[in-house]
Write a structure and sequence with these properties.
37% of the residues lie in helices and 18% in strands. By secondary structure, it is of the alpha/beta class. The chain has a five-stranded mixed sheet with strand order 3-2-1-4-5, sandwiched between helices. A hairpin with a 6-residue loop joins strand 2 and strand 3 (60-67). Helix 1 (71-85) packs across helix 2 (104-120) and helix 3 crosses helix 4 (147-172).
Length: 188
């Protein structure tokens, strides 16, 4: 699992900038193909919010929320969604405390992310998700949505916010060393 400050090949803010993954039937993204899909997850003990990147890897699109049915069953369902959607990478929101420390829920999410990576064979990264549920709730309220409907949708919107944040950071990150456009890369 790649954490926020974890390894990889020089990504910013813990975002790993090197290649996709081969598990769960992910797309290669090579040779001019569309970029591989990324799944965003807002993990919860009652519901798990999901979002997937669009075919161009630009926008996060919410998916239906799945009920948390125990860790093994939830991981199996996420793996199935990865296969259906041809996902090549997973980003899980990490609920840090406001001071940046890791509380019990963040530790549970890290454990879930490690098990998810082992089960799917896909790279799984965590991304700081402080205040995403609050932001999701605010967006839904601004849209005039009734509180019951907001409660039903808040997790999928939070997952979309997490994934969109990852996509935006990845899009603004400098090219990986040796990639076209990177400093020191050979000119074409």
């Amino acid at each position: 699992m790649r954490g926020e400050g974890g390894g990889g090949s020089g990504g910013r803010d813990g975002i790993r900038t090197a290649g996709g993954g081969a598990g769960c039937g992910g797309q290669s993204g090579a040779g001019g193909d569309l970029p591989p899909r990324v799944l965003g997850i807002d993990y919860g003990r009652k519901r798990v919010g999901l979002a997937v990147s669009d075919p161009l890897g630009i926008m996060a699109q919410p998916l239906p929320t799945i009920p948390f049915a125990g860790e093994d069953a939830t991981i199996a369902r996420v793996k199935s969604i990865c296969e259906e959607r041809e996902v090549a990478r997973i980003v899980v929101g990490l609920p840090r405390n406001m001071d940046g420390s890791l509380g019990p829920m963040a530790l549970e999410v890290q454990d879930f992310a490690r098990k998810l990576e082992a089960a799917t064979g896909l790279p799984v990264e965590t991304l700081d998700e402080r205040l995403t549920s609050f932001e999701a709730e605010s967006r839904l309220a601004e849209a005039g949505m009734h509180w019951r409907e907001r409660k039903r949708r808040v997790d999928q919107v939070a997952a979309a916010i997490i994934l969109q944040s990852w996509l935006d950071r990845r899009g603004s990150a400098p090219p990986a060393s040796g990639a076209p456009g990177a400093p020191g890369a050979p000119a074409k």
